[in-house]
């Protein structure tokens, strides 16, 4: 299969697996942690999926996944464990222009380099991890 098709299939599967009945509290502020604690003897599972698409040139796609399980040890103490992972696909990378001299390119620095693409990767080849 073509890499883009594999990527789209992986996203569709992740979405389908993530669709289920869920019972969780409402997140009032989505990017902050509140002081709500999970009651003693209860647990909570959260799954986050964040996508980053495209750069100015070439193709670049990243899907960040985070699974979290919280368990209330007491009414005032809880434990949490996270599993963070991601999928990266980059292709047709180009060198970055020098900000001081826009018509010159910076040597060995590429547009998607440093953002989840391994440092030793050859930018002339597709990156899929």
Element-level helix/strand string = HEEEEEE
| Number of structural domains | 1
Secondary structure tally, helices: 1
What percentage of residues falls in helices of 4 or more residues? 10-25%
Radius of gyration using CA atoms only? 20 Å
Mean pLDDT: 79
Structural class based on helices, strands and sheet pairing? mainly beta
Residue ranges: pLDDT <50 for 5 or more in a row? none
**What about the largest sheet?**
4 strands, antiparallel
N/C terminus separation: 16 Å
Count every beta strand, where a strand is a DSSP E run of 2 or more residues. Answer: 6
Strand content: 35-45%
Query: What strand order characterises the main sheet?
Result: 1-2-3-6
How would you sum up the global shape?
elongated
List keywords for this structure.
single chain; 129 residues; mainly beta; four-stranded antiparallel sheet; two-stranded antiparallel ribbon; 1 helix; 6 strands; 12% helix
């Amino acid at each position: 299969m073509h890499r883009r098709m594999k990527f789209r299939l992986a996203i569709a599967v992740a979405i389908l697996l993530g669709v289920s009945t869920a019972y969780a509290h409402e997140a009032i502020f989505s990017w902050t942690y509140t002081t709500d604690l999970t009651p003693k003897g209860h647990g909570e599972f959260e799954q986050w999926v964040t996508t980053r698409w495209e750069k100015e040139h070439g193709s670049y796609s990243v899907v960040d996944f985070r699974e979290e399980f919280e368990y209330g040890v007491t009414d005032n103490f809880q434990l949490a464990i996270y599993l963070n992972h991601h999928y990266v696909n980059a292709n047709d990378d180009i060198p970055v222009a020098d900000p001081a001299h826009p018509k010159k390119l910076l040597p060995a620095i590429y547009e998607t380099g440093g953002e989840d693409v391994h440092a030793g990767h050859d930018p002339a080849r597709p990156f899929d991890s």
